[in-house]
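cron nightly-structures :: item 1 of 1
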Amino acid sequence: MTALAALAAPKDGGCRILHLEDSPIDAELVASHLTRAGAVCTIEHVETRDAYAAALAGGGFDLVLADYALPDFNGLAALALARELAPDAPFIFVSGTLGEEAAVEAVKRGATDYVVKQRLARLPVAVERAMAEARARTKQRESQTALRRSEQRYRTLFEAMDEGFCVIEMLFDAAGRACDYRFLEVNPAFERHTDLREAVGRTMREFAPAHEEHWFEIYGRVALTGEPVRFENRAANLDGRWYDVYAFRAGEPGQRQVAVLFNDITGRKAADERQVLLTREVDHRAKNALAVVQSMLRLTRAVDMPGYVRAVEGRVAALARAQTLLARDRWAGTDLRALLEGELAPFLGAGGTRAALDGPEVSLPASAAQPLTMAMHELATNAVKYGALSKAAGCVSVSWRVEREPGGPMLLRLRWAEAGGPPVAGAPKRHGFGGRLLDGTVRAQLGGKVSFAWEPAGLVCGIEVPLGSRADQARPAVRHRLKEA
């Protein structure tokens, strides 16, 4: 196969040629010259305007050959119709009457080439060149289409991405130091993150004359060396927000352009800080719990080993319940009612006849949960052993309220009252571990007050604890939720 055959046979069926020629003899001569040159082609010969127009409308032709002078048709009109119905097909005039001026005019109007019938030997070369040019145009068009699609995909991503992106041109002073940069391109997320509007074409100094110098140094180094950088930085001029920044050189080294991709990680940084605080809080609570257990083991008294074990187990269980409540709320605090229900669960029952709770919703600070749990456990244990809960008819009521002292913190005032137990003759002659624990936890740990009244009906204990007192000064802030009972 000759070079012409390779060029003129782009499809499995060969090159399809539409030939407009009123002379059958001339049409055969054209076909003969192409065949001898090695062209693999199918030629459809038409003689009239109507047949020509119908063939073009059917489509599928790779090349159009046409006589210039036709009985009922003008060659330039044939060219115009071909450009309309088959714009991608090369068009070559093959005529015996085509003069130089007519040939020039034909080329101006879109003809690919012209060949006079007296020199048909030149026709295969003209066809070869026309097909090669057509294929080159097709490839170029396909490349441009692919490029436009790629650019559209890039533009869609550029517009929709959540990360801020900009391309900047670094500016240097006479000493070669990076002193500013000009925005060449930004995406919508850039404006959302920085609140800089209509930045393209403007410099950073225009927005922030006192912009942090280290940004210029970093981006200038990237522009000069081509070494990309990634870092986290807190932008003082953007409300102290944290950003994860990736900068790399864009374009040629001499252009000194830098592309910057960045994302706001302030939320992640805050979460990391909360995690650190939580870890420290858990560590503090764990050490405190071990210290409490150590004190229990050392100070608990009992007449026999089973009694000692029961006392220690009860106090450790109370401590564990406090830890569980705190863990459930991520160590931010716990609900007072849930704490009391945990200590009085055996006596609340379905009817709630032996223990009653009355008070608004209160979220205790994390630092107050464990001491109050231990205090309630000691009161409950004492009531079971010696007080109201040691008798079937005995009962306990716990009520509380939250008030603010003038100029002071919010105060939790809790009242424990027993009734129906053994007659109370007065205050005991000595305080046991439970009493000392109550006093120590409320006064020393919580900065509060505790009072005891041994009334004939049973023990009445008043506890007053500041919410957000010195016991909570070193802890994270905690909400105090109040709701009318």
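cron nightly-structures :: done
The domain at 3-140 is CATH 3.40.50.2300 (Rossmann fold).
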